[in-house]
Design brief:
Layout lengths: L1 E7 L9 E7 L2 E2 L6 E2 L30 E2 L5 E7 L23 E8 L13 E6 L9 H7 L3 E5 L8 E10 L10 E10 L4 E4 L5
Parallel strand pairs: 1-10, 1-12
Antiparallel strand pairs: 1-11, 2-3, 2-6, 4-11, 5-12, 6-9, 7-8, 7-10, 10-11, 11-12
């Protein structure tokens, strides 16, 4: 089965983040390998925009790598303040400002070709959601920061063979007290297990 991963998350102007690497069952695939990441770490705040699907303004050249990801694998999404991680030495906002609390979710959409498909009209279904833990008042973003910029989810074992887009969405809620205040950052990742294949990109396709 083939998968394409796109990531969306939310942050503020001076403390944004970019999804820029993936790990498969603990193996880091490398910076921008199989990932289409935007050059800008600015959030998307218009939820009616087509860019909410996979972002826009890809870093060039866009990786054409397809990562092998078997169904049932533990997939990690690696975030950094800018491409490469820290923006300055000892960057306090890497991977993201600690004030940017919010959930992280992952979605799949079945496609004909994960490497070339667009995102218009796709039927997304959620495979993972990490939100607020009431026992310690901790959000998914808090756990991602504590894990050094990584959040993890599992590809379902029941997924049918074929190509998919995999989209990860992180939403920062610190400004969500006003309409349009929630901040989304979106990326995509491509990878493919045997017989599944997944492809990454980080902007709207």
């Amino acid at each position: 089965m083939k998968f394409f991963l796109s990531t969306a998350l939310a942050a503020t102007a001076c403390a944004h983040t970019i999804f820029q690497r993936a790990s498969i069952n603990g193996a880091d695939q490398g910076l921008l390998v199989g990932v289409r990441s935007p050059d800008s770490n600015n959030p998307i705040q218009d939820v009616t925009s087509a860019n909410i699907a996979c972002n826009t303004g890809f870093h060039q050249p866009v990786s054409s790598k397809v990562i092998n990801v078997p169904a049932g694998s533990k997939v990690g999404a690696g975030w950094g303040h800018v491409i490469g991680g820290a923006q300055i030495p000892n960057d306090p906002d890497n991977p993201i400002a600690s004030s940017h609390h919010g959930p992280i979710s992952a979605y799949l959409a079945k496609v004909d070709n994960a490497a070339t498909t667009g995102t218009s009209g796709l039927k997304w279904f959620k495979i993972s959601e990490d939100g607020l833990t009431n026992s310690n008042n901790q959000w998914a973003v808090d756990r991602m920061i504590a894990a050094g910029g990584w959040n993890y989810f599992t590809i379902p074992t029941c997924i049918a063979p074929g190509d998919y887009l995999l989209r990860v969405e992180l939403i920062a809620l610190h400004s969500a007290y006003t309409s349009g205040g929630a901040q989304f950052y979106v990326l995509s990742l491509s990878f493919s297990p045997s017989p599944t294949r997944i492809y990454d990109i980080a902007s709207p396709c």
